[in-house]
TrEMBL record:
Residues 4-95 form the ParB-like N-terminal domain. The keyword Coiled coil applies. Signal peptide: none annotated. It comes from Paenibacillus radicis. Residues 236-252 have a biased composition (Basic and acidic residues). Belongs to the ParB family. Keywords: Chromosome partition, Coiled coil. The keyword Coiled coil applies. This is ParB/RepB/Spo0J family partition protein. It comes from the Bacteria. Pfam families: HTH_ParB, ParB_N.
Length: 360
């Protein structure tokens, strides 16, 4: 493989190559290295009909040398002319280089499979690039997200604020579009670990939770979503438990077995059973109230201070905004009145029980 020096001004970049994002700090480090040690690895080019050369790979090294004003660059000249082979070689080379972003990979794979001049299959790319088909498919799934999410996707596995790793996005990639991007941005903002992302996703995949409730969940923080998941799972586990045999009934059976069939014993047994039934009915009636309370606490977002000055509020439709605020206040006042009443009933019941104990 011959390496020749080619004049820098005769070399052109390939604007269609897979890699187009170049970190400025990384580029500066490369320039410093070239100034000190020279270019240690040549770039690869191919000839063009006009007597010039087009880069196959090594754009970053070319940019560094050109910025430094180097008159020539060491090059390997390729004789390959097939566009598919050249593009595959560009991808293969960049896969070994640091800084080739997941989105650049995804776009390159997508181009190979959907551009008419390539029309490759996942199986073909897998065999050519030495990557599992699942790897290629997962990369392409990143293209489902909006640009606001894509620009936050970075290489590696480190969780960073306002950045996203592939591992964080893989669990949510199959969610409906109306939840996909919003949840991804919450995960980025709140630096949600992958293990917690998987738990939160269970809420959005649960068919027993309505879409309206799922929409409201998107107003929560990552921590609040995790707490909601925890409460929801606990409630679901409680509902799944088989009903326990009432203690009073068991006691009643024991009394029937041990006591004589005297009228006084029968009367006592009936009285005990009636009291037990009354307690059971009360417990059954209280359970839905407690469940409803837990649900409200789980889905109610944390309080954040609202704007305190008129100048800070910018509704798109003032009349509709005011009507919605009235509706919200009305519903909240009704809920508040009901729960205050429940609280007072529980307090009065507790006080009555304490008084009765004192009397005894």
């Amino acid at each position: 493989m011959d390496i020749i020096q080619i004049a820098t001004h005769l070399i052109d970049e390939d604007t269609d190559q897979p890699r187009y994002q170049f970190d400025e700090d990384s580029l500066q480090e490369l320039m410093n290295s070239i100034e000190e040690l020279g270019l240690l690895s040549p770039i690869k080019v191919r000839t063009t009909p006009d007597g010039r050369y087009k880069i196959i790979y090594g754009n970053r090294r070319y940019k560094a040398c050109k910025t430094l004003g180097r008159p020539t660059i060491p090059c390997i000249v390729s004789t390959v002319t097939d566009e598919l082979e050249i593009y595959l070689e560009q991808i293969a080379e960049n896969l070994t280089r640091e800084g080739f972003s997941p989105i650049e990979e995804a776009e390159a794979f997508n181009k190979l499979m959907n551009d008419p001049k390539f029309s490759s299959s996942t199986k073909f790319l897998s065999s050519k690039l030495g990557k599992p088909e699942s790897y290629i498919k997962n990369k392409c799934d990143l293209l489902k997200f909006s640009n606001a999410v894509k620009k936050r996707i970075v290489s590696g596995t480190d969780i960073k604020k306002d950045k996203l790793t592939e591992q964080q996005l893989l669990p949510i990639k199959d969610l409906p579009m109306e939840h996909l991007d919003a949840l991804a941005l919450i995960i980025a903002r709140d630096e949600v670990p992958v293990s917690d992302v998987k738990k939160i996703v269970k809420l959005f995949k649960d068919k027993d939770i309505s879409n309206g409730t799922k929409d409201k969940l998107l107003y929560k923080s990552g921590r609040e979503l995790l707490e909601t998941w925890s409460v929801y799972e606990q409630n679901k586990a409680e509902r799944a438990k088989p009903p326990a045999e009432p203690k009073a009934e068991a006691k009643n059976n024991k009394q029937n077995h041990n006591s004589s069939n005297t009228p006084s014993a029968e009367k006592e047994t009936a009285s005990t059973a009636a009291a037990a039934n009354e307690r059971t009915n009360k417990e059954a009636a209280a359970a839905p109230i407690e469940s409803k309370l837990q649900q409200l606490l789980a889905f109610l977002p944390a309080h954040y201070p609202l704007p305190s000055e008129v100048e800070q509020i910018y509704p798109n439709d003032e009349e509709n905004f005011v009507n919605n605020v009235d509706l919200l206040i009305n519903n909240m006042e009704k809920q508040l009145a009901e729960w205050k009443n429940v609280r007072e009933l529980v307090k009065s019941k507790t006080s009555a029980a304490e008084i009765e104990m004192i009397k005894q």
